[in-house]
Amino acid sequence: MSALLLAAIAAIVFATSVLSGVFGMAGGLVLLGALLALMPVATAIAVQGAIQTVANGSRAWFSRAFIDWRILGYICTGIGIAAAILLALRYRPDLATVCIVIGLTPALVWIPQRWLALDASRPLHGVLCGVIGGGLNLAVGVAGPSIDIFFIRTQMDRRRIIATKAATQVISHLAKVGFYGSLAQAMTGADWLIVLVAAPFAILGTQAGYRILQRLTDQRFRAWTRLIVTGIGIFYLGRGLTLLLGA
To answer: pTM of the entire structure?
Structure first.
């Protein structure tokens, strides 16, 4: 693998980690898209999971004082249920399906609250968040918008939302890596090199994004979150439909 390609990947990881550090998602969507252009689907999801574990882990650490551990417990229960279901079904991803599902999920953040008033602080809703968000993360590699609908309508401020979602994503990404088998078996030496090079840039990007987050108001945070994930979703949906129609 060339030094130029590694440098490009490091730059992408830094930029996407900044994005996630500010909005708590979206960065993983962009990073997965870049990796899918370089690797088979399962390997790309595993590599992205390893990098995102570092990025989300650092974000959770920086904002650990704001993590709501009660909500995290509910969501982890749901993630375990989702993993058990997908393991029983022996699910394996394909590129067109992954892109189409990712492209459709941003529509969730535009659903009016009166239609679907979900709140991760409620026990049943928290478990459902884990089942849906964890299931999507395992199935297609990302789950930001599906998790966001359980947080964006709560009374939590942006710092508690970001911190709790980051901790949730650490568990979800670790489950994803485990779901696709041992990294030592699923990844080549070149894949490991990408993770090792990307890790410090993920931490630096996350720290930069966290600083930007402190300057945002809750209103601007919620508005920009919707616009950004919608734009990324349109890109994925177009790519997925192109793959499907071209097959």
So the answer is: 0.77
